[in-house]
Amino acid sequence: MPTNIKAVLWAIPLTLSITSAIAQPLGDANAVIAIAINEWTGQNLTAHIAGRLLEKLGYKVEYVTAGTLPQFTGIASGSLSLSPEVWPSNLGDVYPKAKAEGKLEEIGELGLQSRDGWIYTADTKTACPGLPDWTALKNPSCVQALATPETFPNGRLLDYPADWGSASGPELKNADIPFATVPAGSEGALIAELQAAVAAHKPLLMRFWSPHWVLAEVPVEWLDMPPCDKSNLAECIVAPPVIKVVWSGFAQKWPAGYALMKALQVHADDQQKMIYAVDKQGKSLDDAVDGWMAQHQSDWQEWVTTAQN
Q1: Which end of the chain has less neighbouring CB within 10 Å, N or C?
Q2: Interval 193-234: pLDDT, tens
Q3: Which residues lie below 8 Å from residue 192, measured CB to CB, with a gap of 6+?
């Protein structure tokens, strides 16, 4: 079959699907859906994926720069319509009040599968062969391999910068793990030490999170964390589910868009690869989103179908 005929036939189902979706009630399709843009690349990618999908249904969108905490004032007032990637570990004071007053709505988890905890390198596993079981950190040979003059006789856990706050110290103490925390100077310092440890084949235990671009470049494993009393979360390392948040009037004003945003899922592995492409390889945000759209066409077509029902 000629290539041009194949291309036409392949496009027919997509055209019919999108046309069918557009035929459904959109609500106020002339009103612009304002999507919040925050300070980190991953959120920017999620926001633009959300915008592309809303455009597939025939909506008009705009991207509005809004800080992580100030955005909630905008969402509560309706000047911002959507924030598709919200980390509940950083909500501030406005969010709970606006939520209690019914001015914003949580519409489910993004599926980002965030992680927060202790990571280690392959050379660390050689020094502490019981990993990822946290009890391997109690083995004297493991403690000795990760000890430094600063922490001796205890092992060293490279922790988040001091001004971020951290539950690593209480976790170590509660589990009776003979390690001491040493805060990094910055996010950049965490990344630099991880890269240096891998290059030099030195064992390293550190606290980190995902998704993050460096995890697409540097192989690490995650420790199975010690049990923690969840009644005192200040002493526990718990990765929050990443959620999607809309203005309380979103569903009434843009019903099909509301259903589509509820269906939206972006996974950590995909986002890490996109962040790496943008932040380290110089790819444009639009190109990275184009790649995601191409790779996940069957997914978002299904979401479009869901949105019309």
Answers
A1: N
A2: 999 999 999 999 999 988 899 998 899 999 999 998 877 767
A3: none
The model's pTM is 0.74
Residue with the two structure tokens 């309380």:
248
Rounded CA-CA distance 133/130 in Å is 6
Neighbours of 272 (CB within 10 A): 19
The Cα 32–Cα 254 span in angstroms is 10
Q: Compute the distance between CA of residue 232 and CA of residue 7 in angstroms, rounded to an integer.
A: 58
Per-residue confidence (pLDDT) for residue 88, from 0 to 100: 82
Domains and CATH numbers, the chain: 3-112+241-307 (3.40.190.10), 115-235 (3.40.190.100)
For every residue of the chain, DSSP letters joined together read --HHHHHHHHHHHHHHHHHHHHTS--S-TTSEEEEEE-SSHHHHHHHHHHHHHHHHTT-EEEEEE--TTTHHHHHHHTSS-EEEEE-TT--TTHHHHHHHTTSEEEEEE-----EEEEEE-HHHHHHSTTTTBGGGGGSHHHHHHHB-TTTTTSEEEEE--GGG--SHHHHHHHTT--EEEEE-SSHHHHHHHHHHHHHHT---EEEEEES-GGGGTS--EE-BPPP--TT-GGGS--PPPPEEEEETTHHHHSHHHHHHHHH----HHHHHHHHHHHHTT---HHHHHHHHHHHTHHHHHHHHHHHT-
Residue with tokens 């304002």: 34
